[in-house]
Specification:
Helices cover 34% and strands 34% of the residues. It is of the alpha+beta class. The strands form two sheets. A four-stranded mixed β-sheet has the order 1-4-6-2, with helices on both faces. A four-stranded antiparallel β-sheet has the order 5-3-7-8, with no helix packed on it. The protein starts with a strand and ends in a 10-residue tail after the last helix.
Length: 148
């Protein structure tokens, strides 16, 4: 499992290549989020953020057959079309890879301590949490087990 919170950009091909080296891997599902239309600044709490992401990945590993996983989330000043986040999940089968990837991304939006400030022409503003993100995470709730 790789969890990285970093200012630097990442190379999708390099990250996927590392996940594909295990001969038991039959599928890799990935998601890249990028900045839309408006420059932004992302802030986080070092140490706390990585721990929160690791907890989300560990929950995905308990729920699905995950061989390996990479989560990279950027912070700092970002411009439109910059990559923000990569979630890549390697598994024996595509169903587990797709489900775990989507679960991790849904929980990153609601459980990882990041703060976003958009820089618009009329001024900067902090981005509020969206109810749609909460709804996406809630659909994964297991009455017997909850991701933190």
């Amino acid at each position: 499992m790789k969890v990285s919170v970093q200012k630097e950009d990442f190379d999708l091909n390099q990250e996927i290549g590392l996940l594909r080296k295990d001969a038991s891997v039959g599928a890799v599902a990935s998601f890249i989020g990028q900045v839309r239309e408006v420059a932004m600044t992302l802030e986080h709490y070092p140490g706390m953020t990585e721990k929160a992401i690791a907890t989300i990945v560990e929950e995905a590993q308990r729920r699905w057959n995950v061989v390996d996983c990479t989560v990279i989330h950027r912070y700092g000043e970002l411009r439109p079309t910059d990559q923000i986040v990569l979630v890549a999940v390697a598994s024996r089968h595509r169903g587990d890879a797709f489900a775990a990837c989507e679960f991790i991304m849904d929980y990153l939006k609601t459980q990882a301590p990041f703060w976003k400030k958009e820089h618009r022409a009329e001024g900067a503003r902090w981005v509020e949490a969206k109810s749609a993100d909460d709804a996406a995470a809630e659909r994964w709730q297991d009455p017997k087990r909850k991701a933190s």
